[in-house]
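Batch job 17 of 40 flagged for manual review because the log was empty.
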Amino acid sequence: MLAAVRRSPQLSAVEAARGAKQRPDRTTDGLRSLPAASPPTWDGLHAVINTLHRKNLLPDDLPHTRSPSVMLIHLLSELALSLSDHRRPGRDLGAASVEPKAEGVQARFETECIIWLITGRLGVRAAATGSLKGYLKYGELMPEFSRDRVLQTVDTIEGLFGGALAFGIMIREEMPSLFELDDSLAV
């Protein structure tokens, strides 16, 4: 089911899961990655950061990195923890925070699922980590988790940016320069 949700960015996560449940023969191998579109750009990440800042959801600390993909994954991780009520009081944005708090292992697994689903739906290269990787790659036992909380948090995060397709476009934005660069000066 997770793979079907990951491969259906045109649908909300809840709708994709419902479709996968009704037609299990349609689910695909979760290990095959989607063809990655162009990687996120810094211009796109600035648009994401500005959106989060306007909605008062920007994390207090951002990593010092040169990689927009690393920054995006960090932002998604912080949003997943916050909106699924695993950290700080959850914001009232329609996330499934009405469920009781999860244990540490469950919270980590749910966060890993949320990040893996969103990055896959955006076409961003990001490998599964932790216990999710063990489950997908090695067939390890999956810890208990709230499927509804994961799917609703994915929908909530994507909804902040107008849905998965709009979010994918946003993270790849390129702002034109105000100055023309002479070809002889281009690197």
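Reviewer: the log was empty due to a logging misconfiguration, but the result itself is present. The helical segments are 2-6, 13-22, 42-54, 68-83, 104-122, 130-138, 147-160, 164-170. Unflagging and moving on to job 18.
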